[in-house]
């Protein structure tokens, strides 16, 4: 049994921790099994006298316990590879970092070498390490005393605010990010026409953020079956005022003291729309054609924002078109995604920027969509985050006769399974219902953690 300590103080810290945990514990490349995750704690940066002021950025910290078959040296090399793949560049001791992963403790193992010391030599000096350890191994003896005793003493010495459990970050790290859908269209399958006016769209966006959306996904072209293609000028006329309004809303959220406000995602396959949206300042590019167009790839190369690449056979969806019935839909999509990843690699687009969306309902029969959802954990083998957009879609007709706008209960039922399978982003209409689902899971997680039960991250 081994415990890793994880920390981040650059960018969206919770997302960086979530992605590191997924890489460590999910998919065929997982190196930790039967894992338990501590609470998530906030703490100030440790910086030496004379360090640049830009280094003084607060951390989110946690610890991850699990079983491993690797030897200590091999595990060290693996976590260093994960750090690099997630975008860590500056390895100076006190410098800020996207992700930092340390081997803290290993049951029955003590090592002292130039490259690795186990237990970690700084454990007893750092409250932000002791608190997560207390969550996981309170009765373990370190230096003649229990972790519980060390943590209590360190907590008593710590100044107010030096180390604190962060419930919001705990949810952000442990559960899927909710991507709220904002359709600025007259003809989307579920809510077409409701948010076509900028004022109405921004009111809805504000509501989604208040309900718990971490991402607002803005789209102005309906991709419903046999939908009408719109020209880029029309798309931009719909999107531009809403993007400006969302940027203002981001500033408002930051002014209230939230360091990591919601992110803005632009859902478009038109290069001119994407370029203009980047000029305004969007955070995520979401391409339903999977960045297969050369010009879209050129844009991806020229920026450093995250990219959602979705599988589809045609846009808008063509009725009756699907993955060949003699092919396993999961294997088909894994093969397609691996080809896309190889193309991104050839173009120097780093994998830590990429998110895969299997495209539920886009060129899939209802049976194929259900099959993909049932086996969605297989996509963790790609070693990148997963986004699933299943909300209110037509495959749910196999379990309900309700119209699309009335399928939130069925959507939530599917989402429960996706939470358990570690999907990182859920693209949904009903943010409030999903936030309630996540909150209940979180309460159960904390109760299990207090009881010492195994808790999936």
Structure overview:
By secondary structure, the protein is α/β, with parallel strands linked by helices. The protein folds into 2 domains: 2-168, 7,8-Dihydro-6-hydroxymethylpterin-pyrophosphokinase HPPK (Alpha-Beta Plaits), CATH 3.30.70.560; 175-435, TIM Barrel (Alpha-Beta Barrel), CATH 3.20.20.20. Helix content is 38%, strand content 17%. It is built from 13 helices and 18 strands. An 8-stranded parallel beta sheet has the order 16-15-14-13-12-11-18-17. Strand 12, helix 7 (232-255) and strand 13 form a beta-alpha-beta unit. The radius of gyration is 23 Å and the shape is globular. The mean pLDDT is 91.
Outline the secondary-structure elements.
Layout: E1 2-8, H1 13-25, E2 33-37, E3 41-43, E4 59-67, H2 72-85, E5 100-106, E6 111-112, E7 117-118, H3 127-136, E8 141-142, E9 145-146, H4 147-157, E10 164-165, H5 167-174, E11 177-183, H6 198-211, E12 215-219, H7 232-255, E13 263-267, H8 271-280, E14 284-287, H9 294-302, E15 307-310, H10 329-346, E16 354-357, H11 366-374, E17 387-388, H12 408-420, E18 425-428, H13 431-451
Parallel strand pairs: 11-12, 11-18, 12-13, 13-14, 14-15, 15-16, 17-18
Antiparallel strand pairs: 1-4, 1-5, 2-4, 3-4, 3-10, 6-7, 8-9
Keywords:
457 residues, alpha/beta, Alpha-Beta Plaits, TIM Barrel, 2 domains, 8-stranded parallel β-sheet, 13 helices, 17% strand, globular
Q: How many strands in all?
A: 18
Output the CATH homologous superfamily of the largest domain.
Answer: Dihydropteroate synthase-like
CATH topology of the largest domain: TIM Barrel
| Residues in helices, as a percent range | 25-40%
Low-pLDDT sequence parts: none
Widest beta sheet: strand line-up? 16-15-14-13-12-11-18-17
Largest sheet: 8 strands, parallel
- Give the CATH class of the largest domain: Alpha Beta
CATH architecture grouping of the largest domain = Alpha-Beta Barrel
Number of self-contained structural domains: 2
Using only C-alpha atoms, the radius of gyration works out to: 23 Å
